[in-house]
Amino acid sequence: ITGVTHTPVIINDNNACTTDACDPATGSITHTPVNTNDNNVCTTDCCNPATGAITHIAIIIDDNNLCTTDACDPVTGITHTPVNINDNNPCTTDACNPIT
């Protein structure tokens, strides 16, 4: 049969952070987000929709308290462990000023 055409529908959403598809049985168009998760709770996972570049930006763990040691475990998350202020001298009152 002449003159018959089958032009594909446009499925590109112009977002490099999605996988675009069309189901040939239903015609349903999908835009599935790419997986950016690095399974590290100490990062914010991002995808640049223009380039598709995936980044993992370290989260801020500093609690602005100089009396704690700040850390982040990739599995369990942020901890703020109090610094040891005990000088083992029962004749002193031990303290820590969180600002100084």
Which term fits the overall shape? rod-shaped
Q: How large a portion of the residues is in β-strands, by DSSP E?
A: 25-35%
Uncertain spans: none
Intertermini distance? 85 Å
Order of helices and strands: EEEEEE
| Radius of gyration from CA coordinates | 27 Å
Mean of residue pLDDT? 96
- Structure classification: mainly beta
Largest beta-sheet characterization: 2 strands, antiparallel
Give the strand tally.
6
**Order of strands, widest sheet:** 1-2
Total helix count? 0
| Fraction of residues in helix | under 10%
Structural notes for this entry:
The protein is mainly beta and 100 residues long. The protein is built from no helices and six strands. It has a two-stranded antiparallel ribbon. The termini are far apart. The relative contact order is 0.15. The mean pLDDT is 96.
Sequence-ordered SSE layout with sheet pairings:
Elements: E1 18-22, E2 29-33, E3 43-47, E4 54-58, E5 68-73, E6 77-82
Task: Give a brief rundown of this model.
The chain is mainly beta. It has strands spanning 18-22, 29-33, 43-47, 54-58, 68-73, 77-82. Helices cover 0% and strands 32% of the residues.
Features:
100 residues, mainly beta, two-stranded antiparallel sheet, 6 strands, 32% strand
